[in-house]
Amino acid sequence: MRGYVLHGRGDASFGEIQVPPLGPYDALVRTTAVATCTTDVHMINAAPYPNAIGKPLGHEGVGVVEKVGDLVRDFTPGDRVILSAGGADWRIPQAQRGEAKYYPNNMPYFSEDPLQGGVFAEYVRALDADMSMAPIPDGVSDEQALMVPDMVATAFTGVERMQIEFGDIVAVLGVGPVGLMGVAGAALKGASRIIVIGSRPKTLDLARRYGATDVIDYKQGPVVDQVLALTGGVPVDSVLVASGGSASDQFTAAFRIVKPGGHIANVSLYYEDTVTLPMDALSYGGIEKFFTGVFVQTGREFYTRLLRLIEQNRLDPTGLITHRFDGWDELPEALDLMRSRNPDVIKPIVTV
Ligand SMILES: [Zn+2]
Hints:
Order of helices and strands: EEEHEEEHEHHEHEHEHEHEEHEHE
Helix content: 25-40%
CATH superfamily of the largest domain: Medium-chain alcohol dehydrogenases, catalytic domain
InterPro entries: ADH-like_C, ADH-like_N, ADH_Zn_CS, ER, GroES-like_sf, NAD(P)-bd_dom_sf
Structural class: alpha/beta
Cofactor: Zn(2+)
Number of strands: 15
Organism: Modestobacter caceresii
Bound molecules: zinc ion
Protein name: Enoyl reductase (ER) domain-containing protein
Number of domains: 2
Pfam families: ADH_N, ADH_zinc_N
Strand content: 15-25%
């Protein structure tokens, strides 16, 4: 079968690869749509995980079940499913205390199994299908479902860490696709005022559609001053960090605008070696402010709840999709868009 394989740093291309073998708990899924992600671009540029080399890239995909292993209970060929973006191992004891995702050795990028690859391939093996995949309801389109495994799931995991209560004032730093879903999630959680910090007009407009009450252009002045000017100097209850740029700058801004006792959830991946935080932003170490580095929640139960929000018209993530491609041959173009820094690109998808 065909797959878009990472060969090494700066080197990825289509190649012929082996259809993965099927274990008793696994499903073989024929990919029908994939999305490209800034993480894919980083994977190609830096090849940070040795176990990912030689395998197909990609972690945002939906498909149709082709075959199932003998011990799969709840899926049959023909089912439309979400493929997992992460690799929680649901059969380790730690899973029983909700910690499955902290041991992600099933993740294609980390797995030592050379045949456990990403979703940029004609077929994907879903390990432990009953636990890792989610059936897509009839009322949910492939495009909607495709935004779930990373964009919605990452943002909503972060939003859960913000501990939002009704009427809270929250800030979302960065309005890429995950930040935008963070806005939608904060609105669903009952935030009253959602202050969004970005600069691209297209994404700031979309942020308003997803529930932002105030938008700030960080190019118009220091973020902290702009946020506090909006709130009359009152710090916000919680912050979602979903921005690019420098981790030190973003975390400093977050700590400066969040209240004592407030929560900061970071959903961005930064690749700096060190972070510098001014001590006054941490109140010289003497005031409680909570910071969580967020790793996406995966699994059938979580995906099913997110899909239910879409099915019941509480959420439509397709506003993120700015570019649509048709066929595997156009995948490199969809990846180029993620590299382009074109301000109109939010999320490209490829239907195959
Ligand atoms: Zn992604």
